[in-house]
Amino acid sequence: MRKINIFDTTLRDGEQSAGVNLNLHEKLEIAKQLERLNVDIIEAGFPASSEGDFQSVKEITKIIKNCSVTGLARSVKSDIDSAWEALKGGAEPRLHLFLATSPIHMTYKLKQTPDQVISTAVETVKYAAKYFPVIQWSAEDACRSDLSFLVKIIKEVIDAGAKVINIPDTVGYISPKEYGERFKYLFQNVPNIDKVILSAHCHDDLGMAVSNSLSAVENGVLQIEGTINGIGERAGNASLEEVAVALHIRQDYYHAKTRLNLSEIKRTSDLVSKLTGMIIPPNKAIIGKNAFAHESGIHQDGVLKEKTTYEIISPELVGVNSNSMVLGKHSGRHAFRNRIVELGYSLDDQEINRLFKLFKELADKKKEITDEDLITLLVDEKLTDQEDYYHLEALQVQFGTNQIPTATITLTNLDGEKIQEAATGSGSVEALYNTLERCVGLSISLEDYRIQSVGAGRDALAQVYVKVKHQNLESSGRGSAQDVLEASAKGYLNAVNRLLAFEKNIISLEKVGV
Ligand SMILES: CC(=O)SCCNC(=O)CCNC(=O)[C@H](O)C(C)(C)COP(=O)(O)OP(=O)(O)OC[C@H]1O[C@@H](n2cnc3c(N)ncnc32)[C@H](O)[C@@H]1OP(=O)(O)O
Ligand SMILES: CC(C)C(=O)C(=O)O
Ligand SMILES: [Mg+2]
Q1: How far does the centroid of ligand 3 lie from the alpha carbon of residue 148, in Å?
Q2: Domain enclosing residue 365, as ranges
């Protein structure tokens, strides 16, 4: 099993993501978490680029004890001097020097001939070697560089004192096979290559950063560079969590391992996402919200019978609590029954079948069925035999721009008695709900109120969703009508009738988790 060093550049290349700017405190938080994750090297920044970056690299160097800390520098003496000032307090100061080697970069950006580039590289590596015990040298845009030129310059910088040679795919251009072949070629043709560690640094412009990194491992590379959540310049860098978990899960194939604490992955990913503001897509491998979510009936049935049918990674491995079964229109009876049981209900086959039909009807209209929806279905099912405690007989609301909204409502209760009340509010809906509260004689707080139209056009039905709370008990209700105020009153009464059903133990409170 070969040990692969993980070089984390979340704080340098990751921070190069458009729109990301981390302050010192945030960088320290991420660095401490990277240490818990146990990466080998943290690239903490680019000290010459700004005073803020300089201070961050310096402070991170002071506090990090269990990983090496490095900083980036151009092949310029003043950049190397800044990096030394920032990094010199570390146990084994390590510099990351880079210089472009592709014809495009040398001609148009550096405006240097290949020979000038070689002498700049050699001179600056020698200069840095007076201070730094470890120098990593990167051939920027190596994957669009001429191979024989790469062989020549790499040989020279190794002789000048570089200990790690990085072959970045700076613009995310190369394919996995070509990248592997490039390393094979360098291993075979650079005469002093055995004196250094070769490193891979991939960008995701064509979506191949992780595959390219793994191809590098297959071809003998011992260091992989990347970022948490794959953030970075343009389309980002290789996602370290994906590389590390791929190596772990496919040890049989790669015969390589990292020293990462894989169970810290989720925590690290969440922290980086929160502090950078870069949201993780739900379908992102390893750390996306859906990475361990099973949605379709056949998969859910398989996983309930034996997890490995559809799970190659156990969620706990990467610090995710558990997998999840998302109930939706593709779910089947096995997952449905399982969730009902988890919620504390026991229903016979007939009840399950009846409820499953209602569930499918609802799932056709709604993307995801939540526990609250399921409980509503269950309660509705239990309540079908019961009479509602209160019925809306009549309602009238007076509203005018120069008057206080007032509602008058008549209800009948189960015993057929009429209850009539009136109250005001700062708006028509509040006047309605104050009046209904008086009618039912309970102190009820409104926790949520949402209104939407069902169908299109001016005559669309109004559908109101209401969540109310009485003491510790919450209940939700829905009401629809052509008029928004009538729909609002019906939704509220529906929620209150459910509350009363709970309170009268038509359905036991424990069953709904109260
Ligand atoms: C592939 C990568 O990710 S490389 C890292 C990229 N990261 C960054 O650029 C973030 C930090 N950068 C910065 O803050 C600024 O660009 C600085 C402070 C480094 C430099 O700023 P400025 O001096 O204003 O130069 P500017 O950024 O406009 O241009 C870059 C200069 O560096 C030169 N340069 C680029 N790479 C190198 C290198 N590896 N070695 C030496 N010189 C280099 C360019 O040719 C250009 O030189 P010129 O001014 O003689 O034409
Ligand atoms: C500085 C270098 C290593 C880099 O980030 C790149 O080439 O992508
Ligand atoms: Mg990069």
Answers
A1: 23
A2: 293-383
